[in-house]
Design a protein that fits this description.
Layout lengths: L1 E4 L5 H12 L6 H8 L6 E8 L2 E11 L2 E9 L8 H15 L4 E7 L3 H9 L3 E6 L9 E7 L8
Parallel strand pairs: 4-5
Antiparallel strand pairs: 1-2, 2-3, 3-4, 5-7, 6-7
Helix pairs in contact: 1-2
Family: Belongs to the acetyltransferase family. RimI subfamily.
InterPro entries: AcTrfase_RimI/Ard1, Acyl_CoA_acyltransferase, Bact_Acetyltransf, GNAT_dom
Subcellular location: Cytoplasm
Length: 153
């Protein structure tokens, strides 16, 4: 498996992952295409590829000292095989390369598996955002220190 920057050839696969895994919170095909084509200057799309097929994707926004993981999605048949870890590692690396001092993300309050995944990789809960998701669900905000300017993880 490799993790690389997404290209126009990946748009269809990323849209399919969004729709299959994120349901009502999936981004539109137009927004995905715009992001992959570079129309959103702070946004980076990464894909995980195995045997020539896109099996996961991550979206990060890096602005000044903050990197934000906006999406991470893995095809069900490739879960628990290191794809999400590889994508998260690539986002952390991109944040550090651009001198971000922290990584932030939101995860659904009821998604205990994702919260445990992030916690095992050093992220800690720092806040909650009520009614954050389309269906009114609360988001848990998690943070990871990336650099020396960040005084806490």
């Amino acid at each position: 498996m490799i993790v690389r920057a997404a290209t126009e050839d990946d748009i269809e696969a990323v849209v399919a992952l969004e729709q299959a895994n994120l349901g009502v919170d999936a981004w539109s095909p137009t927004l995905v295409a715009d992001g992959i084509r570079g129309g959103l200057p702070t946004v980076r799309y990464l894909v995980a590829e195995a045997d020539g097929a896109v099996v996961g994707h991550a979206v990060a926004s890096i602005v000044a000292d903050i990197a934000e993981l906006q999406r991470i999605s893995v095809a069900p048949e490739h879960r628990r095989g290191g794809v999400a870890t590889a994508l998260l590692d690539a986002v952390v690396e991109a944040g550090r390369a651009e001198r971000a001092d922290r990584l932030l993300l939101e995860v659904r309050e009821d998604n205990h598996g994702a919260q445990a995944f992030y916690a095992a990789r050093g992220l800690v809960e720092v806040d909650r955002r009520p009614r954050y998701y389309t269906d009114g669900s609360t988001a848990v905000v998690m943070r990871l220190g990336l650099g020396p300017a960040c005084s806490w993880s």
